[in-house]
Amino acid sequence: MKTLKITTDNKISIIDVNLDDYRALQQEIGGYIETVHTQIMYDYFKAPVLMLVDEEGLIKNLPVNAVASHFYGYQKHGCVIAGDAIFAISLGENMTGFGKRDSEQWINKMLNDFPVLVAEEK
């Protein structure tokens, strides 16, 4: 499924990953998956969006992901997200991607709203 990924070096891209395949998600993130959802993400995306991150990112001393940390709400509680992040839409107990067309629209919006981001060249 086509969805968004933001890396620790501030690159945003559309990835094609099976969101129902835990091993595929682990491979894409680089470790055990933690699912995060916040009011900040809901307000931004106007939808029940989840952020999938490396559960052990801080323990592994991965670089901080500035945009993922913003969506996590570090401004309020001081905790950051370390490692890459994948975004998915929550449909009850299932997840889905944004799709190619919507992913492209979200990339353009996020590039505009977060000047630190750059589109990853494929």
Work out the number of β strands.
7
Number of helices: 5
Q: Spans of 5+ residues with little confidence (pLDDT < 50)?
A: none
| Global Rg | 13 Å
Integer tally of domains? 1
- Helicity level: 25-40%
Q: What kind of sheet is the major sheet?
A: 7 strands, mixed
Range of strand content: 25-35%
Distance between the termini: 17 Å
Secondary-structure class: alpha+beta
InterPro entries: DUF3846
Protein name: DUF3846 domain-containing protein
Description:
This protein is α+β, with helices and mostly antiparallel strands. The protein has one domain (2-119). Helix content is 33%, strand content 27%. It contains 5 helices and 7 strands. The chain has helices at residues 22-29, 39-45, 66-72, 74-77, 100-113; strands spanning 2-6, 11-16, 33-36, 49-54, 85-91, 94-96, 118-119. Strands 1, 2, 3, 4, 5, 6 and 7 form a 7-stranded mixed sheet that branches. A hairpin with a 4-residue loop joins strand 1 (2-6) and strand 2. Residues 1-97 form the DUF3846 domain. Pfam families: DUF3846. It comes from Dorea formicigenerans.
